[in-house]
Amino acid sequence: MTITPDSTEPPGRSSTSTTAASTAPSADEFAERFLSSTLATAETMSVYLGERLGWYQCLADHGPLTADELATRTTTDPRYAREWLEMQAAFGILDADLSGTPTTFAISPGVAEVLTDSSSRSYLGALPRMFAASFGRLPELLDAYRTGGGVSWEQLGADARECQAALNKPWFDTELAPALAGVDHLHRRLSQPGAKIADIGFGAGHSTIALARAYPEAAFTGLDVDAASVQMARDNAEAAGLGERVQFHLAGGEEAAAHGPFDAAFAFECLHDMPRPVEVLAATRQALAPGAPMIVMDEAVSDEFSGPADELDKLMYGFSLFVCLPDSMSSPPSVATGTVLRPAILRAYAEQAGFRDVEVLPIEDFAFFRFYELNP
């Protein structure tokens, strides 16, 4: 699924206070909207239960099923299973057949693809894990909001780590190679025999693995500060048969020079999380061979804050409040970027790091992301 910024200006982008007041919701209107948001929260977290307990996958593989049958196949409690199944049918996620006794429940192909097919670009089944990870740390988050502290990626744990990896993987697997192949000068550089490529902040390593598959004559070095992610990436590389050409290190981007020089460097959806992005960009620039570029993939948010926003900006503010900003602020001193990394902010970071210019690459409709080329 791709969310793209609305082509029209959101309400209030250039509005005066008088216009803003005239469009403000009444108490009844806002109460209705907030109730809808509450229902959406309940729906989201019910998907977390179904995804983590294997209930959606079981229905996709073996349905239609009764509550008892689902519970037996998944070794879960039948009373909880029945309540969850009825709730899913009430929300229109699952289909309920009331013609027999007991009721059976089924998952449609489209819903199954979104919630269980981790190879599909429409896959979102792991998405609730990110919010579940954050909600499990609400006391720490409240304290961070009061004191200016943070909650680290390590504290958020496996749910957050696995969510980001799972949602990005189908895009890296199917779309990264053709996207880069469409940028001629970059494709030529990556295709050079013996090219040495860096992946800064690689997470589970799916971006690095996708690059290695696309450019078999290149060698790849990944740097990441999260130990659990490094191990996950190493396991993924071995499973892909790429352990010889892909090396993952527990190290920050500030240490890039120790592993270079590189013919190109990438940073996929991680710059906005970094407490000191300028230092990382500067170190990466110093680790690049003469004329080599750095490619940053980050959120394709709107150019500037303008009040009411499109769906993409709203989603990214949600991630920022609960995940990315607290993670960044957990390692002081931090510039505290947040998920909503606007182009002007990235350009300022690049300029401070010594890059000569920043260009937006002609890669469109790549999930939530925009690609920037930073040239030294």
UniProtKB/TrEMBL annotation:
<dbReference type="InterPro" id="IPR036388">
    <property type="entry name" value="WH-like_DNA-bd_sf"/>
</dbReference>
<feature type="domain" description="S-adenosylmethionine-dependent methyltransferase Rv2258c-like winged HTH">
    <location>
        <begin position="44"/>
        <end position="116"/>
    </location>
</feature>
<dbReference type="InterPro" id="IPR048711">
    <property type="entry name" value="WHD_Rv2258c"/>
</dbReference>
<dbReference type="GO" id="GO:0008168">
    <property type="term" value="F:methyltransferase activity"/>
</dbReference>
<keyword id="KW-0489">Methyltransferase</keyword>
<dbReference type="InterPro" id="IPR029063">
    <property type="entry name" value="SAM-dependent_MTases_sf"/>
</dbReference>
<dbReference type="Pfam" id="PF13847">
    <property type="entry name" value="Methyltransf_31"/>
</dbReference>
<dbReference type="InterPro" id="IPR025714">
    <property type="entry name" value="Methyltranfer_dom"/>
</dbReference>
<dbReference type="GO" id="GO:0032259">
    <property type="term" value="P:methylation"/>
</dbReference>
<protein>
    <submittedName>
        <fullName>Class I SAM-dependent methyltransferase</fullName>
        <ecNumber>2.1.-.-</ecNumber>
    </submittedName>
</protein>
<feature type="domain" description="Methyltransferase">
    <location>
        <begin position="193"/>
        <end position="305"/>
    </location>
</feature>
<dbReference type="InterPro" id="IPR036390">
    <property type="entry name" value="WH_DNA-bd_sf"/>
</dbReference>
<feature type="compositionally biased region" description="Low complexity">
    <location>
        <begin position="14"/>
        <end position="26"/>
    </location>
</feature>
<dbReference type="InterPro" id="IPR053173">
    <property type="entry name" value="SAM-binding_MTase"/>
</dbReference>
<keyword id="KW-0808">Transferase</keyword>
<feature type="region of interest" description="Disordered">
    <location>
        <begin position="1"/>
        <end position="26"/>
    </location>
</feature>
<dbReference type="Pfam" id="PF21320">
    <property type="entry name" value="WHD_Rv2258c"/>
</dbReference>
